[in-house]
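S.,

As promised, the adenosine monophosphate run. Input:
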Amino acid sequence: MPKKQKEKKKFVPRKNKEQKPKKKEAEGAVVEKGKRAHNILRGMHDILPREEKYWKTMFHVAENLAAYFQYGRIETPVMEEAGLFVRSLGKGTDVVEKEMYVFENQDGSKICLRPEATASVVRAYINAGMFNYPQPVKMWYWGPMFRHDRPQAGRYREFRQVGYEIIGAADPAMDAELILVAYNFYKDLGLPVEIRVNSIGLPEERERYKAELANYYRAKKSYICEDCRKRLLKNPLRLLDCKEDQCQPIKDEAPQIVDWLSETSKNYFMKVLEYLDALGIPYILQPTLVRGLDYYTHTVFEIYPVIEAEEGAAKETAQSALGGGGRYDLLMEEMGGRPTPAAGVALGIDRSVAVLKQYGEKHPINLLKPEYDIYFAQLGERAKGRALKMIEDLRQSGLRIGFNFYKNSLKTQLELANDLKVPCALILGQKEVQEGTIIIRDMESGIQEIVDQKKAENIVKKKLEKI
Ligand code: AMP
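Predicted complex:
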């Protein structure tokens, strides 16, 4: 027995033996006695190798959709001037008021970790003079965002979003295209979602509506929650976001923004819905959907997972939006650019991974599979040395080879070959090294043939119908 374990036995007081292990220990954290390990920051999470298949698939789907719909990739910095978001998202919004990570830069200016990326994309559009490009300009991004929110299931302080933006046209087909891209993202993953959609018109229409909404809520002030009383003073539109039970009946009876829209705004919205109908995308009209940021105009939408409560979905993830977006026709001008209509969507990847994983426990989902053509098994020291070189040569010739140098038993290696679902395996033992041969095993029938090492590549490629 190693010394450390003996010591552990000696020093653990008897009564502690009966106590439940601390949470960290229960989760498998191994910290040496008497030492302090660093913990991850609250609200942040590591993405571990065992999660890779979900992340890889999401990126693959996102990238394929971008290529198919012709969006160019843009990467903007994680740090920006804090003022960029105050100006674009709006002073009174939760994100700006409570959730931004703001620091003082060495020169005394205020910088922040980006809470979202649309404002950065718009800034980049202006900085790079993209109004000179053929319009509209279609861009997509993938990267981390930071919000100092209260952490809970599906809500982190660092999370990743993929987003698609179309800048430079005011066509309802654009709004429909963005909804289609978001819808397809989940469809390609095999996750059922629903789209909730609304129109919040133009600022002047919204102002009239806000006044009406505030009037309505003021009359009911004694029945609403503490937060809603604050919202009533600061940002009445946010009253419609309230999830408190006591406020629901009041919310249900509240005036609806669509009744305050001009004919032009209404027609624009109708056109978007017509396109969605034509595309066969199911949607739900949700009059209370207003989104949390100031920059939206006209169409706003959110994407929700369709997971039955009895399927054991965590309440928070099942009820939270996977993504959202809308039109932001006035943002470019607001940010100092020339008036340029635009629209976009952002999908939360961390939350989507959590929901997909949960859904995938009981339903088929579409994950990328690592694909291998063959497996290479080796037996004995000399074979290992030769195998290294042969594997490298076969890799260079374009074959994808599964192997594990740290397993010596043939049985284990053939089990690994089975897991990778390869049609055949190459087996190299001491005898084959001596004779310059190698065994090719058909994984389904188990039939083996011995071939010349020099001919192995061609024989395998013929079997795989690669030549
Ligand atoms: P938003 O722009 O706030 O609507 O965010 C779009 C999507 O990003 C949301 O629907 C979430 O999937 C994701 N998201 C936003 N905030 C967080 C967060 N704090 N943690 C994890 N995901 C988030």
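The domain at 374-466 is CATH 3.40.50.800 (Rossmann fold). The longest strand covers residues 137-146.

- D.
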